[in-house]
Design brief:
single chain; alpha+beta; Immunoglobulin-like; four-stranded antiparallel sheet; three-stranded mixed sheet; 3 helices; about 20% helix; globular
Length: about 140
């Protein structure tokens, strides 16, 4: 029994040494975004896609996330400037939504999004993503 405990401690010590030697003692955090979105009245925006476009002038990419109850999260983001805009779905017939079992109140975008926020060129929503760790983006829209 004693030799088994000793072997266990040696194994644990060896694993710990390897982690330190490989540089795993400090967690590496990649750039990511945590954000909130509300309309001009302070209503949480929900059930809508938010597009984040990075480096558009340099052939950069775009990532789309869903805003739910005023919150969105991007687990891996490209450092540097990003432009945000909303991809608002066209209005749907309430009778059709009811027939599919979806509550029309919950299916539509909660919160008012002015047309200027549905285009990357006119949104005016630009942010800087940090090189490491978390970037907090709080979007508060104007009525116009």
């Amino acid at each position: 029994m004693t030799s088994q405990v000793c072997l266990l401690w040696r194994s644990a010590g060896l694993c710990g040494f390897l982690l330190l030697a490989l540089g795993c003692s400090q967690p590496v955090t990649q750039p990511h975004i945590v954000g909130t979105a509300v309309d001009a009245e302070g209503t949480k925006i929900s059930n809508v896609e938010l597009a984040l476009r990075s480096g558009a002038d340099k052939g950069g990419g775009e990532i789309t996330v869903i805003v739910k109850d005023g919150v969105f999260y991007v687990p891996a983001a490209t450092p540097g400037p990003v432009t945000a805009y909303f991809k608002v779905p066209p209005p749907q017939n309430p009778d059709y939504l009811k027939s599919t079992g979806v509550n029309p109140e919950k299916a539509a975008v909660a919160g008012k999004i002015a047309p200027k926020y549905t285009n990357a060129k006119t949104s005016g929503l630009t942010y800087q993503v940090n090189d490491k760790g978390e970037t907090k983006i709080d979007i508060k829209l104007d009525a116009k």
